[in-house]
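Crash report, auto-generated. Payload:
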Amino acid sequence: MQVDIGNALSDVARPGVSEGALERLDERVARVHERIERGMADDEFGYAALNLPETTDATEIREAVEPLTDADHVLTVGIGGSALGAVTVSRALGLDGHAVLDNVDPAETRRVLDALPLADTAVHVVSKSGTTAETLANFLVVREAMTEAGVDWTERTVVTTGADGPLRAAAETEGLPALDVPEGVPGRFAALSTVGLVPAAILGGDVEGVLVGGRAARESLALSLFDSPAYAYGAVCYALENRGATTNAVMPYLESLEPFAEWFAQLWAESLGKDGLGQTPVRALGATDQHSQLQLYRAGRHDKLVTLVQSSERPDVPIPETDVAGLAYLGDGETTLGDLVDAEFAATEASLAAAGQPNVRLTVDPTPEGVGELLVAMEAACILVGELHGVETFTQPAVEWGKRAARGLLGGGEFEEADAVAEKRRLVVE
Amino acid sequence: MQVDIGNALSDVARPGVSEGALERLDERVARVHERIERGMADDEFGYAALNLPETTDATEIREAVEPLTDADHVLTVGIGGSALGAVTVSRALGLDGHAVLDNVDPAETRRVLDALPLADTAVHVVSKSGTTAETLANFLVVREAMTEAGVDWTERTVVTTGADGPLRAAAETEGLPALDVPEGVPGRFAALSTVGLVPAAILGGDVEGVLVGGRAARESLALSLFDSPAYAYGAVCYALENRGATTNAVMPYLESLEPFAEWFAQLWAESLGKDGLGQTPVRALGATDQHSQLQLYRAGRHDKLVTLVQSSERPDVPIPETDVAGLAYLGDGETTLGDLVDAEFAATEASLAAAGQPNVRLTVDPTPEGVGELLVAMEAACILVGELHGVETFTQPAVEWGKRAARGLLGGGEFEEADAVAEKRRLVVE
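Recovered output after restart:
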């Protein structure tokens, strides 16, 4: 992975960071790097995530899912970190056939189940606690749908969960293959574990390659941001946030990385959205969003860092020749779709710079190794930003209030938060 | 449609707007409403969009696509406003089988074409000018793929374009059914026209119902924001942006409105991202993003308005009974998935309010009429904000720089913007 931070420097962009400021920040980066290395060595909560490329046992995953590898479809039942990493990996590897139930919209649950050939579908249920309401509710619905379709769901299901809890108990009772969630790793940092790799393994993806790339990213961490792409990216995000870029728009020029932008949004928001800090992650997609968001990115407030993700190579899809007037420059028999998207990438990057809007270019390899490298590098970047901010990167305390309120509303116990719902201030216009 | 702005008031949220300030703003709303009505009466550029529910001829659309209604799949080839409205309408109507080529990623174009049964696919090509590079390049690739698959693409294609240009010429040469883009309407405001309704019409959707709902939204515009849901929403967005909510996170609790959040993001960004103004639209999804973005929305900066979109009703999908400990409150045989998502909606709304984070509730009917009403109401809200800001709502001048640069890079002429690309400031870490 390569990071080019030139367009985030203060001689190009506003806000921007000077090279001098980056050099001064680099002293803090060195201390954070030592902290991260210590956390990794001690397998401390959260920091342990960066060890996953070493500790995840791909062979164990392959053996557990072996009875399901005849399936052409995988349905992941999970939410948040229990779904996003898996979708990101399978889509980035170009694997089709991975569906997900990561919501409790009844119309959507029904739609997904109606569309799937259930006899040809492997189900991966993921919940660390084994009690996540959305996941368990959907799993109950899936089991019933499979039974109604004449499919023995116990033959088609693999579970990834913690050591205890209802999902573990169900796996033991029904004899389901069961994998462990990794110890000491929040869900959003668990893509390179059982949590993120099982669907890709069922669909025949190169999960070993993903782990190899993750190890490369881990090994590229160094004492200086000028020697480590992950830290260079994190340091620029931190410096620019402090200088006013409170939004980070992540814009891959690769459709296969569209879920990556979602995954990044969770990583950034849940890890860094604390104490009144944290960039707001915005999910974009190149070239499509040039026709949607670019007007704002160029001419709106100077409060955004745009992270442009470029692919180091493209498959060859020639644009057929045409004699249509005005299109000869495209349909000349030599230009490919890749040439077009690459030109648009370069043009957008330059157009942001010309408007003084800060942007960074990440160049990734569209290979399993490149995917693993990207994910682990972004995790390390996120941890760096959290350390520089001094926030608790690995927890998400603010979501507990709503969980208690919802549980109270559903009759799952007495919670004062549920009472607050009835007291809502209303001003209705209809 | 119902709008509840109670949680955006200054006695609840920071930033928030006082009722007194809204009353003072209401005088300006009245003047803007008169301006909008005048623009509609004169069919002025942009304002004409609000006339589409009256002027769009559903019968003409049905007749043009009639030869294609045997297709189970529709492929829209378009980008930006030529694709988002169509995807939003078909998905909101619950129609499956609508694919889209709205990018020029060669891997994605190949993936989409490989996955489609081309003999059973109708192609809808949309470009106002008929020269949009991405759209025309993809169309050339689609034609070739159909020919290679033994399908006569001239029998399977409908075109929506302007009066002149290469697409119009191709339609005439090949005898394709061709529809007109509406006059005086930017693409992002054209969902309720040929541009947005053709795929739904081919797939048997109730496009007439969408237009009925659009008319209802139009008729609900009034001289006071307290009498008009669309203006109430727009006025609160404007007031909160000025008070620091420079981000607008749109979070539908309906998967079928996921593309709506994308459509809204284009509407908001291209129309209002001007002169250093404009809220940054963020696309979210409930309940899923409670496990991703909610931590940031509650505990991050107070620079966000969260627009929560609730459904007025849900299909009945019961959660099967279970005796699993800890889940009895869900699997009691009476609770439905809809109960769960509704409880999560109310809990999230209250949790944001408890943290003093401003939010607004839009309640929509999950019907064709409700969809049309929502889209037109958001367009009117956007026009109101643009008028209040005094920006040019209906143009997108900032994207032209990049278009010229890309064209220059591809050998489509001499453009000085292309030279700027080579001068990029680089600081590479790898």
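Post-recovery validation: Residues 50-205 of chain B form a domain with the Rossmann fold fold (CATH 3.40.50.10490).
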